[in-house]
Write a structure and sequence with these properties.
By secondary structure, the protein is α/β, with parallel strands linked by helices. 33% of the residues lie in helices and 23% in strands. Helix 5 links the parallel strand 4 and strand 5. It starts with 5 loop residues before the first strand and ends in a 7-residue tail after the last helix.
Length: 203
């Protein structure tokens, strides 16, 4: 490593359901297998680390995955699938942060809702930046509710921690990343996706 090379530690924050759905919309038909859209967290981190800016080496600090938990008594099969996938993420080196799904009174006529996940991500994005727990936070999500948190980090004049995003480029809907000015984006096309895909069936 050259003496001129700068080492930056990055934390990868993955909005699991949002990123999964975004990959499916970008690259797959509605009838595609449920495994289509899944990713291996460590491979996404490796992809990001491989795209270092000139003179910078990116080293992984942590992978954090945020997701909703189905109720085991209401949806036993879905809960079992979640548990298997969550364990796989942990085996892959990720920290899993989960929130219970919300069930409306008319369930099962209505779908369970994911609540609190975007808040958990926003809090951690800001806390990690304020505490300087890394040099760069990379957000893998297309949820526009997270834009204020990204802008808060980006606009702090006394903060040396950077914020970047990852999004999908190309595909049948030409999906894009969060549109935030002056924020670096890691574009993921179909070729990239195939390298980070997790084809395991957790059902």
């Amino acid at each position: 490593m050259s003496s001129q090379t700068k080492v930056e530690r990055f934390t990868l924050f993955i909005d699991a359901q949002n990123f999964y759905n975004s990959a499916r919309r970008a690259f797959f038909s509605d009838s595609a297998s449920s495994a289509c859209g899944q990713i291996k967290p460590s491979e996404l981190a490796n992809l990001i680390a491989s795209r270092n800016p000139p003179g910078i080496v990116r080293q992984l600090n942590e992978i954090r995955i945020y997701t909703g938990i189905p109720d085991g008594s209401k949806e036993p099969q879905t809960h079992s699938s979640y548990t298997k996938q969550s364990n796989a993420w942990k085996m892959d080196g990720a920290t899993v942060i989960s929130r219970p799904l919300r069930y409306l009174p008319d369930w099962p006529n209505s779908r369970a809702q994911q609540k609190g996940v975007d808040v958990a991500i926003a809090v951690d994005l800001i806390a990690y930046a304020i505490d300087c727990q890394h040099d760069v936070g990379v957000l893998a999500s297309l949820d526009t509710d997270l834009v204020p948190a990204v802008e808060f980090i980006q606009n702090r004049p006394d903060n040396n921690c950077k914020i970047e995003v990852a999004g999908f480029d190309g595909g049948k809907h030409n999906m894009r990343a969060l549109r935030i000015s002056n924020t670096w984006c890691y574009w993921i096309n179909k070729t990239d996706y195939d390298k980070i895909a997790d084809l395991t069936s957790y059902r």
